[in-house]
Amino acid sequence: MALKMVKGSIDRMFDKNLQDLVRGIRNHKEDEAKYISQCIDEIKQELKQDNIAVKANAVCKLTYLQMLGYDISWAAFNIIEVMSASKFTFKRVGYLAASQCFHEGTDVIMLTTNQIRKDLSSPSQYDTGVALTGLSCFVTPDLARDLANDIMTLMSHTKPYIRKKAVLIMYKVFLKYPESLRPAFPRLKEKLEDPDPGVQSAAVNVICELARRNPKNYLSLAPLFFKLMTSSTNNWVLIKIIKLFGALTPLEPRLGKKLIEPLTNLIHSTSAMSLLYECVNTVIAVLISLSSGMPNHSASIQLCVQKLRILIEDSDQNLKYLGLLAMSKILKTHPKSVQSHKDLILQCLDDKDESIRLRALDLLYGMVSKKNLMEIVKKLMMHVDKAEGTAYRDELLTKIIDICSQSNYQHITNFEWYISILVELTRLEGTRHGHLIAAQMLDVAIRVKAIRKFAVSQMSALLDSAHLVASSTQRNGICEVLYAAAWICGEFSEYLQEPQQTLEAMLRPKVTTLPGHIQAVYVQNVVKLYAAILQHKEQAAEPEAAQEATQLMVDRLPQFVQSADLEVQERASCVLQLVKHVQKLQAKGVPVAEEVSALFAGELNPVAPKAQKKVPVPEGLDLDAWINEPPSDSESEDEKPKAIFHDEEPRRSRRQQPEEDEEELARRREARKQEQANNPFYIKSSPSPQKRYQDTPGVEHIPVVQIDLSVPLKVPGMPMSDQYVKLEEERRHRQRQEKDKKRKKEKKGRHRRHSSLPTESDEDIAPAQRVDIVTEEMPENALPSDEDDKDPNDPYRALDIDLDKPLADSEKLPVQKHRNAETSKSLEKKDAPTEKKSKKLKKKEKKPKEREGGREKKIEREKKRGEDLDFWLSTTPPPAAAPTPTPSTEELSGNVVTSLKDEHEGPKREEPEDEEDNVGHNQEKVRYGKPRHKKKHKKEEHTREKKAKRKQEHQVQPVQNGAAEEEEEPIPPMSSYCLLAENSYVKMMYDIQASLQKDSQVTVSIILENQSGSFLKNMELNVLDSLNTKMARPEGSSVHDGVPVPFQLPPGISNEAQFVFTIQSIIMAQKLKGTLSFIAKDDSGATHEKLDFRLHFSCSSYLITTPCYSDAFAKLLESGDLSMNSIRVDGISMSFQNLLAKICFHHHFSVVERVDSCASMYSRSIQGHHVCLLVKKGESSVSVDGKCSDATLLSSLLEEMKATLAQC
Amino acid sequence: MAGARARACGRGRVGKLRRQALEARLARPPPPWPQRPPGRPGPAMIKAILIFNNHGKPRLSKFYQPYSEDTQQQIIRETFHLVSKRDENVCNFLEGGLLIGGSDNKLIYRHYATLYFVFCVDSSESELGILDLIQVFVETLDKCFENVCELDLIFHVDKVHNILAEMVMGGMVLETNMNEIVTQIDAQNKLEKSETFIFQSPRQDR
């Protein structure tokens, strides 16, 4: 045995390791495949050995070969062997190989279940970790089912490293085994509040991903996420959550209303591009879901567009790209806001980066209006000429067509121009989109009746110059346009000026070189043309001319009869026989024109693409049932009408048009008539407005298009669209002039260009032609919409599970061992406010002297309320008219006093306040993106209205802290914001907030109020840093640089900016000198202004209101490591209650206990100093004894307190 | 806000980095690289992570969706074809990878000296976040290999996989804090070292 082991390791010494393999492959560049197959043979030998190290080495090499494209699934069993090695080194190799090559089809994968379970419960966290990582790549439904419970247990593992992996892999487990979602969800939700940020973000990640797929089931989590959003400092969590809200808002518009304000504030304040970008995206989603009903949402849109413009103008191509991408989302609902940035987007069209050009093209689609369409298309046409590479040029071509044809050609005012654009496009070399142009030509000619005459003239010119189009290469895509040209000339041959000439052009020998399907159309339409000529000549009594035409046909048709294309040959033979017959009749002098024309009688109406689909199946009709016994190979034509219509050109599916060949149509027309007559279920369409145009040659209501003779209609090969642009401008100009004069009522639109068209605004430019766009026919009782059938194979569909229902016993996860007690916890839904509230209330319970009465009831009531998402949503304060804070105290006081009285009535008062507090709390946090721990400070708010309400809570809160039972006199309003500096332009108020999480950082919120009539911009705040206190500046800027204020101030507006300062020592108060510089711009010009200030960092601002229980407080005092100090202030007239409130508010203390006119108070600094106070009130004096872990801090604090109390 | 938020998630202008003279080395941490808060999550769904060199030779391929080996090679080839023809100073996002995932997906890549790092991700993910993630990946490699270069990736693809496994798990971002990643990798290496006496130093083949 020992010998064997020695032998094994000796063998190993001679084996190649991974590095040798790589080196070998690099040295055998010429015969790499041969070398590798040699190596694989060696590997196979190694795998046969018993030594696990050798096997692991072999598997490691296989993993490398897998990357090079070699199938290694044959070694799956060996991989499992290596996975089960006891050593971590080998185990890791095995799991890596498995993750690279195992998939659901791997049959040996079921062998791994027990091994993985063993590894998951291994005492070594890395064994567990490596198993989780591997499993995440190859988890199958079976593995998911068998291991779900083990993984769920790991979600509560002691090590965060395991917890976060377990949380993350749950997503894969859910996907493979949806039944596990409901049992595991409570624990997953718990992990949202895990102390480890990594675990927390993994949980956010998983839930966000779940919610993105099935948002409606997660709506009830909205309050929780809202809370997370407001409490998280992690931008990546924020991005996730903000993205999630983007998915939730379409389902719940009220949520959008709640979000819009915090989000817009974030947009204003953040400087992180990724966060900004996601906020803008979500605001867009919100606005789309709201669409209307938000009074000030145009401001939000403007903000988004403005920010996006900044992105697009950035030199960083990535930002430019993303800006354009987000812009296109706004475009869908708010095209007007985007249109104003046309210049920028057109500029992006010239960008060297194709990704950006394509994005810009997408945007153009929505930017066009009647006014600028011609201009934009002209620009695009120039790009078409310049573009290198057919791919981009084709893209341009399709975009031009898309832009012009969008929403039923609504932006086209002049179809002559459009037809000439299409004709110009036919001159493109080597485009693949000939069929697209052809489809457009057909569509326009059919649906815009007024343009037919012009279209026909253009098409005949095109046919005349067909040799140019078709010359280059046979299979050139562009010759497809001839198909359209031939059809249009044939179908609307009555408009042709010189039909004979066109007839000749279509019968040229050269035509036989065209593709078969085009020749077929030629043949068919030659007959139509011929019929028209006959009719014309007979009416004009020129039988000779008619006979000439017949002769021409008889002479030329045989070339088609010889065609190799069956379709062409067949049609040509038929037609030839027909014409020969006509010739005979003509020789006898019989008039034949009527009969020949009758072949093509009837108007062709466009049919909507989905018309057939939308016909509801009549009751009792089973379409699947066989009428007769099934024939051998039948297919149901009815289900796929498209297949018939598009058999020649399946790609032309943009719009369904009757462009099919005539014979087929005639046949079908007949068949249809028959069917209509017989079929009781047929839904008859409303009578077509136009019947048989042959019968009514000069139909009154079709406006006659008068061709302006200045347009060289007959010169092929000349770009004409430019002239149309000019003409159109003139026309519009004339229109405008005429409108300015007194307008006379005329029959409008009959004569284009010379008619005055009343009742149009400048915005709404009247089209040159009275555009009579024939709408596509739909069956009358068509079903309103076709639902987008969800893909039944969508893996996320299985996860569409209601998570709010309580868990049933049958839903437990399959377990091998005993179920963890925690998992059986009922799935009672709790929303964030509920939890928060109940926690809060619990804390209060411990506080002495709390009201006892009715508390139980209150908790119940609040819980019930919190459970209701509706309630959470409905508590949204009304959207602010202008989201700008105005901290003017005078204005507030009036409100406060009146509302205070209401609030102070009875025990009811706590309730609304709590609620309001929560909302305010959340919003405030969102707004600044940072948690703030001093509730009182959170309430400096955006609107006057809200402010007023909140203000009163400032006072109520301390009252509560004091836990007074007696009725008190109202407390005067307090604001923690104090004046920083003021001049004629701007007033600055500031407040300093500390946060427990950052022990050396405070945030200074400065409210800037524009007091002037000028527009303030380019505001920059700079301070002179001291050794101890420094302002946090953006990376890369020096200590002398100012920090830009992220907004501008229109006159009379105020907004809040936040600046972060780092502080080393907090035991002394500090003053920093600073300057606000800005540009004030008014009508007379812009001036550069400055405002100096002194920023006072009081020691109180480093304190954080921290509740403390009396027992803990007593212990603290007993500990004896606190130094002591005291002050005494005389001449106090204020009530003790209010006094305490003031200390609580301004110095961030909380009342621990209060007995008569004596109270103990507690607070904590951001660096963890404990501060304890004993406040005693005498007749007209107050004495404060303080104890603190730092003597200097205490004396500074007491000094500050003295100043506060002196004012009382 | 110029403070906390910017530092938390400033999308560092690492784009400039790649143009710096780093012929032999792949990356060095940019001087003012912001310290990330621990455990920020990234995109949930990464379809594939590919590393190949300027000639399209694969240096690492990690697919989070099952594909056959042939398809994988095709995807690598197609991706290389798409990415390599782009100029240096164009945007790092690319649509239109046909093989992998279709319209919902995007290729987000960075080019460092001789190597392309390509992430194929869901369209719902934060594009800028992924760019940052790639940077973290490269910096982590740089730290673990001490001045990483293409040869490190060639000879130690298994180690690169192990590092990646600490960052991305099953297509979801696990950890983006470089220090945390490096700590875990070091701990595992130590464990490995204690297990085997024939331990191969990663520098041995340089």
The residue-averaged pLDDT of chain B reads: 73
Q: How is the biggest beta sheet of chain B arranged? A: 5 strands, antiparallel
- Beta-strand content estimate of chain B: 15-25%
Distance between the termini of chain B: 46 Å
Q: Work out the helix count of chain A.
A: 47
**Tally of alpha and pi helices of chain B:** 6
User: Which secondary-structure class do the elements of chain B indicate?
Assistant: alpha+beta
What's the SSE pattern of chain B? HEEHEEEHHHEEH
Structural class of chain A: alpha+beta
Q: What radius of gyration of chain A results from the CA coordinates?
A: 41 Å
- Overall, the morphology of chain B is globular
What's the overall geometry of chain A? extended
Radius of gyration of chain B: 17 Å
What kind of assembly state do the chains in view correspond to?
heterodimer
Distance between the termini of chain A: 93 Å
Short description:
With 1208 residues, chain A is of the alpha+beta class. Helices cover 51% and strands 9% of the residues of chain A.
Overview features:
heterodimer; A: 1208 residues; alpha+beta; six-stranded antiparallel beta sheet; five-stranded antiparallel beta sheet; 9% strand; extended; B: 206 residues; two-stranded antiparallel ribbon; 7 strands; disordered N terminus
